[in-house]
Each structure stands twice: as structure tokens, then as C-alpha cells.
Amino acid sequence: MGKYDGIRALLKRPKNYATKCRVKTKRFEDLGDDYKSKSAYELSHLAWATAEGLEIRNGEPVINWDQRIPNLTKAFGLNPEILQTEIPFANSFIFNKTRIPRGWKELVIVTTGRINKCAYTVYAHEWYAVTFGWRDWLETEKVSQKMLDDLENWETSNLFKQEEKAVIELAINICLNSHKIPDSVFEQLKSIEIPKKGGGKEKVFQDKEVVEIVLLSCHFNLLCRFLNTLRVEIEPDRIEQNPKLIPIDSFNESAG
Predict the structure, then answer these.
(1) What are the beta bridge partners of residue 194?
(2) What is d(CA 199, CA 220) in angstroms, rounded to the nearest whole number?
(3) Is 151:109 a contact under the CB 8 Å cutoff?
(4) CA-based angle 104:118:147, to the nearest 5?
(5) What are 16's strand-pairing partners?
(6) What domains can be seen in the chain, in order of their start residue?
(7) Which residues pair with 134 in a beta bridge?
(8) In this structure, are residues 244 and 126 in contact, taking their beta carbons and an 8 Å threshold?
(9) How far is CA 21 from CA 32, 117, 211, 230, in A?
(10) pLDDT digit string, tens, across residues 55-105
């Protein structure tokens, strides 16, 4: 028995909802001359392409953006000022390489997404986790599909390293208990050491990294609520990428 057994059901994958977004997103070409954030829009394209490992040629992603502009970006794009600030801000701690291994970040994001029942976040970032989610600085192993399938049992599962359990525990507490997170959660976080290139071990979480990992979960609490409230639809190719995603016919307020 673990102390988090009571919230296991919250870590189940949310169901997708097949419904129309509550705001009408448009193709960039259709937005007109009054749309002022083309540079921010292009920046978001490049960030997304880099995150997904796509080929970048002469500073441009080799992709048909009519088909692949993420719906989250389209929704933000309806308010250019928000898009212009959100993309570089979010990318600074989501996609940019920092001292926190990418796999740990994705586990925090997926955990936050599941607790918020945000299918868009969960299925996008489960794909990121298994594709780019290195579990340490040496980049010898990535987050596995088995780990994601067993996330409900993270506390007792032997698939997760202690440091991964520590960041998952932090994310859970931020989502459910931010006003009274036990000091032990942060003590455990700051004690984490992992191997570094050249030999030896080093602590990962100094104050700078603590701020980063806390902001990561907090920001995805915001994004999940934004996506859920507007019912931003998952892109069709994202559904094809993830066989775990089974759309249902209509939005279900009690969907688990």
C-alpha cells in the first residue's frame, strides 16, 4: 500500500471527446492583414518542428504547415498578443534543453494532464515522452510505453526510478495539494543525484531547477484548463500516432 493509493483513479488516461472547439480557429493565410503576429506564429512552427525532431532546412521546417499547425497554437493565435508571449515563454522550460532530463519533464506533464483529464495534453506528451524523453543526462534510455501504461501504479512500480517518482509526486501535489505540500517532497527532490558525463554524480535540483519543474507543472495546469474549457480538438495525425487514444462520439462530462 502506498500513501497515494487513494488517487490512482485520477491517473487513468482521459477519454478523447469528438466535438467542435468552442472558438473558431483559422488557417494563418485566412487571418487577414490585421493579424500582427506572423513572426510569433512562425516561431511556434519552428519550436514545434524542433520538438518533434523534424528536418529544419534554411531555418524552416520541412513540413506542410496547413496540415500540422497544432490546434493549441491556432487557438492562441486568435489573440496575437497572447501567442507572441506564450510561445517563447513556454518553450524556455518545456522544449529547450535544461539540466532536468526531458523524460522527467514529460512525466510531470503527462501526470498533470491526466489529473486534469486533458486528453490533448496527455496524448501529445505521451508521444513526446517515448520519442524524446531521455531519463538521464547520459541519454542512454528513454521513457517507455510500459512506464506510461503503468503510471497509475507509479508509487510501487519497479519501472520508475526513484528520481522519476520524486518528480511525479511533486506534480501530483501541485495539482491537488499546492497550498500544503509537505517539506519532504522538496527534500527528496533536492537530494536527487544522477550520473554525469565524465564520471561521478551531481545533484540535479538546485533552486533554479526547483523553480523550473514547479513552473512546468503549474503552467500545464493552466494549459489543461485552457484546452478543456475551449474543447480544443486533438489533431487527427496525433490520434493516428497513439493507438491508446480512442475517440468517443460526443463530449462526456464524466469521461474518465
Answers:
(1) 202
(2) 34
(3) no
(4) 35
(5) 247
(6) 35-91 (no CATH), 100-251 (1.20.1290.10)
(7) 142
(8) yes
(9) 21, 16, 33, 6
(10) 556 655 555 544 456 788 778 877 767 877 887 788 888 877 889 999 999
